[in-house]
Amino acid sequence: MAVSTKIIKGRIRSIGNTKKITKAMEMVDGAKMRKAVAAVLASRAYADLAWSMIFNLTAGVNEIANPLLQPRAEVKNILYVLFSSNRGLCGGYNSRVVAEAFQQSQRFNGYGATAHWLAVGKKAADAIVRSGRTLEAQFEKPERVATSADVMALSHLIINGFSDGTYDKVMIIYTDFVTPLVQQAKVKQLLPLEKNSDDTLGAAEEVFTDQPKPIQTRVKSAAIEYMFEPDPEIVLDQLLPRFIEVQLYQAMLESAASEHSARMIAMRNATDAAADMIDSLTLLFNQARQASITREIAEISGGKAALE
Fold first, then answer.
1. Are 165 and 290 within one domain?
2. How far is CA 102 from the centre of its chain?
3. Do 230 and 291 belong to one domain?
4. Residue 305: C-alpha distances to residues 87, 299, 301 (Å)
5. From 141's CA, which of 35, 115, 257, 259 has a CA 20 to 30 Å away?
6. Same-domain check for residues 254 and 269
7. Bridge partners for 44 per DSSP
8. Rounded mean pLDDT, 52-70
9. Do 169 and 191 touch, CB atoms closer than 8 A?
10. Average pLDDT value for the chain
């Protein structure tokens, strides 16, 4: 049965309106992405150097000098901190983070470790609850460019939980911004502070089979000699919490830049798909109109022939 030209015109109009919306969203997220990427690039070098410097500082310090440096003899409780978006329409951005977190927790669960979940952003919180896992806390992810004040409460919860023994290990899972087209889910060990803890875990077995090693053997000797004044304990008590805040802040910035990039690309793909659908419907509309005109001409010719 031929499709009515009126129905086709209505579908073209509807898809055209959707195309305008996706195009506007693409432009808005493009502007947000540029601001987020600028913030990431402005802070990334500082965060990386701070992360490296903390291991140089602690290379010659006894790990007992600060509770954040003390590895647990047995890992029983692991806190997973997921960074996600508050809204959808950003492709596989949220699903990659959630899938990576659940995969890591399954590896540790095989060794009897209990997973604890904390979410930054509504989508991660919803995914954790839907999976039947217990969400211990949820922090709002700011829609604007984040500031260091946005991670203060999160940092205090993590540091206090690790210091009092509630958690034996703290992992953060976020999306690392590479390019506007490439964003990678990344797992980073935040606590205890260990060399190579910024690498994505490839095998959970290493955490449970290796005995805790002194920091002097875990970290290569620093090329720079540091002098602590008045003493290492006081200096580290002040520095280590600030370094944790810096890493959380950088993870939030990376996550925001990745979110806006993913949504911009998703909206661009949606706009292109809408344009293709409009082209196909326009062709169908022209064919239906041509068939209608041909049918009317045939009916007029038939009626004229009958009168003769």
1. no
2. 14
3. no
4. 66, 10, 6
5. 115
6. no
7. none
8. 71
9. yes
10. 82
The model's pTM: 0.80
What distances in angstroms separate CA 144 from CA 73, 113, 149, 172, 260, one per listed residue? Answer: 41, 36, 13, 21, 11
Here the tokens at position 56 are: 């140089």
Asked, for residue 167, whether it belongs to a domain, the answer is yes
Q: Is the dihedral of CA 204, 158, 70, 194 positive or negative?
A: positive
> Is the pLDDT at 1 greater than 50, yes or no?
no
Residue 184 to residue 258: CA distance in whole angstroms: 9
Indicate whether 238 belongs to any domain: yes
Q: Which two tokens stand for residue 233?
A: 């304990």
Buried b (16+ CB within 10 A) or exposed e, 155-190: bebbbebbeeeebbbbbbbbbbbeebeebebbbbbb
Print the domain residue range for 271: 5-28+265-303
Phi-psi region of 165 (alpha: psi -120 to 50; beta: other; left: phi over 0): left
Alpha carbon distance 289, 4 (integer Å): 9
